[in-house]
Amino acid sequence: MKTRITYLYPRRKRVSFTIVARKHIKELRKRGLGIHEADIHAFIKDDVGELTLVHPVFYPLIDSPINYKTIIRYSKKMIGFDVCDTDRITPLASYVANLFDLIIVPSSFCKEVYKRSGVFTDIEVLPHGVDDVFLREPREPRDKDVKRIYELKGRKILFFLWHSGFRKGADVVADAFSRLVKEFDNVYLIVKLAGILDPFVQFLYNIPNVILFNKWLDDEDLVDLYDACDIVVVPSRGGGFELNALEGLARGKIVIVSQWGSFDDYCKECLRCGSKKTVDLFLGDTIAKTIHCGRGVEPDSQDLYQKLKYALTMYDIVKKKYESLQRIVRTQYTWDKVGNRLYNIIIRYI
């Protein structure tokens, strides 16, 4: 008799956890595993499998508390997925993580953070992947707004500001680009938004050559947007894994990141802006601090400006150095490779 496997995740609202969970489910089904899906905020005991996968582990504790007693009572094994937004998690988060047979995190840095915070259960590192569409050849953009970006004369810098503007470093990008645009009149900052204006977008107002791109794109058009740009900046103060940096590398772009530890697995050879100090990542957000109680880095906007200036001035030479990083991402970080690793982990617990 086959083991009943249930995957609990946010099905009713689309967040980053939802996207990654659905990728996992797709890859496991491709390899012959039957997966029962249920919403993490609205499951019943009949949804719980002999092996239950919970994604994410922590935020449901404060967003819409889930009944871990039900999962523990009716599951033989539990595997949890989560991230680290700061350099430490709370005793409560560590206690919950230790209820699981296995915790899966997206970076080596997250694994170190969990261990340092008191998680003693088994931990595996499983990165996110890039979709096959990110491996295709470039084409002329089909979306009319992406095409306008493509046709701009000059260098274009791409920055994603979907949410969490402080953590993503929106103010750092604004300060660096406001200096840069005074020296290069043919450079543009393309800010990819996602329908909801993050409060930190205000830092980007009134800066010349800033284009706010507030439109949802499917994967094909998103790849075209990457291809229309030359540099991707990801000066994050924290976070467990920054997919935009990985996607930028997959498209052969110059990617500039911060000194945050989650980048170490795949961005060690990237240009990295220095950090002046550590910082309280969630400011007055007491809810987030229920889980992520540590600190992040403070990217130096002056150093980001210098790295951007160098990349623009020495563009062809710098871009050449990124070709080897593109090959690594395209061979090691595809969803097919990640799916194989996930499958081999899961079958150990069946």
What does this structure look like?
The structure is a single chain. The protein has 350 residues and is α/β, with parallel strands linked by helices. The chain has two domains: 141 residues, Glycogen Phosphorylase B (Rossmann fold), CATH 3.40.50.2000; 201 residues, Glycogen Phosphorylase B (Rossmann fold). The chain has 15 helices and 14 strands. The strands form three sheets. It has a six-stranded parallel β-sheet. Helix 5 links the parallel strand 5 and strand 6. It is globular and about 65 Å long.
Task: Put the structure in a nutshell.
The chain is built from 15 helices and 14 strands. With 350 residues, the protein is of the alpha/beta class.
Give the SSE layout:
Layout: E1 5-9, H1 16-30, E2 35-39, E3 51-54, H2 60-63, H3 68-74, E4 77-81, H4 91-97, E5 102-105, H5 108-116, E6 122-125, H6 144-151, E7 155-160, H7 165-168, H8 170-183, E8 187-193, E9 210-214, H9 219-228, E10 231-234, H10 243-250, E11 254-257, H11 264-267, E12 271-272, E13 275-279, E14 296-299, H12 301-313, H13 315-321, H14 323-332, H15 335-346
Parallel strand pairs: 1-2, 1-3, 3-4, 4-5, 5-6, 7-8, 7-10, 8-9, 10-11, 11-12
Antiparallel strand pairs: 13-14
| CATH secondary-structure class of the largest domain | Alpha Beta
Whole-number tally of structural domains: 2
Q: How many strands appear in the DSSP assignment? A: 14
Please state the CA-atom Rg, rounded to the nearest Å: 21 Å
The level of helicity is 25-40%
Distance between the termini: 11 Å
